[in-house]
Amino acid sequence: VAVVRDGLNPETVYSAEALVGAIQPTPDDAYMNGCGWETTHRWTLPKDLPSGMYLVVSTARNSAGEEREQHDFFVVRCNKETSRKKMLLILGTSTWTAYNDWGGANSYEGIYGAEGRDFSPYLSLDRPFSRGHLWLPEGAPRIPLETPLDRGAIPRYANVEFAFAQGYAKYYAAAGWASYERHFVRWAEQNGYELDYATQHDLHFDRELLEPYKCAVLVGHDEYWSRDMRLAIDGYVEGGGKVARFGANFCWQVRLEEEGNRQTCFKYIAGDSDPVKGGEDEHLLSSAWEDPAVGWPGTETFGLNGFEGVYVKMGNCTPRSSGGYTVYRPDHWAYKNTDLYYGDVFGSEANIFGFEVDGLDYTFEGGCPVPTFTDGAQETTEILAMSLATTVEANHGNPGALHYIGEADAGYKAILRHGEATPETIAKVANGCGMMITFTKGKGEVFNAGTCEWVMGLKKKDAFTEQITKNVLDRFSE
Asked: In the chain, what is the straight-line distance between the N-terminal and C-terminal CA atoms, in Å?
């Protein structure tokens, strides 16, 4: 076993060898109720261990000399023994949990239900993570298409093909430290930005967690949130805090139960199956934030809505889009020292716009997009950049095609917006957008990049993406 503080220069802080292994049975419902394994090895963390993301790398060797490696993690928060930084990075652990299919199910598919073929609305945190969410080899494919789709070609999903061929989790590229936060952390450390660390679950149980910090940072794919997590962010911003969100896909309300050890989200079937439906706690329905029963659109916290996006360069969802943002307000402080002009496209070479994005309902005034304010947008919202997205994976009838997304999400969005899914209502909601915005609320301020793949602009050293990121972090940490 080795414990590694991960980042630009990974540091091993503990190791132990020649430990005797023991086989412990895994319950059939471990994905839902946990593994319940007994402890076989302990290590007490030093009091001065710096805040950070720590990978626990376990290597098991059998009698034939074959090795198998597993990655797990823990997060160390700042305490009185360590120096507090100006910025706190909040890891998207609720979304990590939703995509983790270890034990047979996640929030997308699995062995739950009477026929053993359904996603599980209940997911335990008492289980390991599937391979790829915490560590990946260099070059593992990401979700957005790297090259435009040829005319007449069928959709391909390089990340899923890689997962099946190499034994990684099917959803490794959709969520986790390895695909998102790690790239940001390595860039931040290389550029002199110091961070403390916490998880969404920490935020859920401690609304005062953010108070000592000038800026809260979110990165990558943070699709799932609890009500208490949102309330913590809202209170922080109202009181003068700054939030820098370099991510997207703000969609689902979750509930944390069993003292935080189980995450509940019924998603599309919440209206029929969630036990809180129709009761006094219906506002806690584990459905979309834009669901009328929940009535709390994402715009009220982060300025954008998840279902006003969603998909870009994923299969046949905008397969030939630029992969970048079009600039509309180049005089805004976020563009300082970028040398970007109105109408420029930035980030396309790094493919920063994808695979899921957040947006607003908008119109154009004077050649620039402005919110219509029909979907809860904050009055102070400024749309700095924009590009297009869709909830429908178009089918052109090209021979041999299988479509992963189809119209399922568009149908759900149609129900949210119009009460029913018909060809007419689906057509009304099929098209969306992603936006980079800023807004003020109370005494605080929010920057929202509105795209999951922003981190690729940092990893691939896109000068425009890097400068905008520096502008935001410098302003928000003053």
From this structure: 40
CA distances from 131 to 47, 71, 150, 444 (A): 30, 7, 32, 39
- The sign one gets for the Cα dihedral 315, 317, 320, 326 is negative
Q: How many CA atoms lie within 13 A of 81 on its CB side?
A: 9
- Find, among 138, 244, 219, the residue nearest to 454 by Cα: 219
* Rounded Cα–Cα distance for residues 310 and 301 (Å): 18
What phi and psi, each to the nearest 5 degrees, are found at residue 351? 60, 45
How confident is the model over 137-164, as pLDDT tens digits?
999 999 999 988 899 999 889 999 999 9
Distances (CA, A) of 442 to 11, 84, 236: 41, 25, 10
Nearest to 302 by CA among 149, 1, 90, 459: 90
pLDDT, tens digit, for every residue of 188-241?
Answer: 999 999 999 999 999 999 999 999 999 999 999 999 999 999 999 999 999 999
On the 0-12 / 13-18 / 19+ scale of CB atoms within 10 A, 280 is: exposed
255 near 286, Cβ under 8 Å?
A: yes
Torsion, CA 298, CA 304, CA 306, CA 312, rounded to 10: -170
Within 320-426, strands assigned E span 325-327, 345-346, 355-356, 362-365, 368-371, 382-390
Length of the chain: 478
Query: Which one, of 284, 248, 293, lies nearest residue 264 by Cα?
Result: 284
Residue pair 317/388 in contact (Cβ under 8 Å)? The answer is no
The structure tokens 């059998």 sit at 62
Helix (H, G, I), strand (E, B) or coil at 183: helix
For residue 379, CA distances in Å to 248, 328, 376, 399, 442 come to: 21, 18, 9, 48, 12
